[in-house]
Amino acid sequence: MAQNREFFYRRLHSLLGVIPVGLFLTQHLVVNHFATRGAESFNKAAAFMEQLPFRYFLEIFVIFLPLLFHAIYGLYIAFTAQNNVSRYGYFRNWMFMLQRLTGIITLIFVVWHVWETRVQAAFGAEVNYDMMANIVANPFMLAFYIVGIVSAVFHFANGLWSFFVSWGITVTPRSQQISTYVTMGIFVALSIVGIRAILAFV
After folding, report:
1. What is the CA radius of gyration of the chain?
2. Which sequence ranges are marked TM in the entry (predicted)?
3. Helix or strand or coil: residue 161?
4. 28 labelled ligand-binding
5. Does position 189 have pLDDT exceeding 80, yes or no?
6. Which of 27, 95, 123, 162 has the fewest C-beta atoms lying within 10 Å of its C-beta?
7. Distance between CA atoms of residues 53 and 65, nearest Å
8. pLDDT class for 36, splitting at 50, 70, 90?
9. Annotated binding-site residue? 33
10. Domains, the chain, ranges and CATH?
């Protein structure tokens, strides 16, 4: 019974990491990328997202609750996993370790980002171009955001590889090798989008 429960939790953790959390990450980066077109373009995109129907329902049940489960169970996986890169330096072992490390970094980053944006908005602050520009005006915060974005994107992209394996989509060594190239391509592409977006606020 315990094994079945853990199997279910791991499958749910994997699924939520892609749908909806991974999709939300991608959408969030794309919206932020409007900053590269100027303050007015970003503010229009942000205002559109703010005015979505059922926004609070979507934020709670499609974003925050799935993210909370993924984060909490992810911490359990991270701190119970047996990393063996010191003995076996294979590529996938390094990816396994980096997946856990970037998960922790991403969690810290997301909590801080939510505090600086959504929580402050609840207290009356306006989430707009100026808010983000003020945040990243501090060089330390700019570096923190870049590290957080790259960590989040890597965690999602590499998590996709694991998702494809665990859900039986890529079962052969050849398909897993192709999946590695595809997911690393996603990592590079989304990292460029995210970094360009955050630098646009500087």
Report:
1. 18
2. 12-34, 54-76, 97-115, 135-157, 178-199
3. helix
4. yes
5. yes
6. 123
7. 19
8. very high
9. no
10. 1-200 (1.20.1300.10)
Joined together, the tokens standing for residue 49 give 């997202």
CB distance 201 to 132 below 8 Å: yes
CA distances from 72 to 67, 134, 156 (A): 9, 31, 16
Angle at 105 between CA 48 and CA 86, to 5 degrees: 145
pTM for the model: 0.93
- Tens of pLDDT, residues 18-28: 999 999 999 99
Average pLDDT over the chain reads 93
155 is in an annotated binding site: yes
Question: Taking a C-beta distance cutoff of 8 angstroms, is the pair 104, 147 a contact?
Answer: no
Tokens of 98: 């980096």
Is 113 annotated in some ligand binding site? Answer: yes
DSSP assignment of 74-116:
HHHHHHH----TTT---HHHHHHHHHHHHHHHHHHHHHHHHII
* Distance, first Cα to last Cα, the chain: 53
Tell me phi and psi for residue 156, to 5 degrees: -70, -50
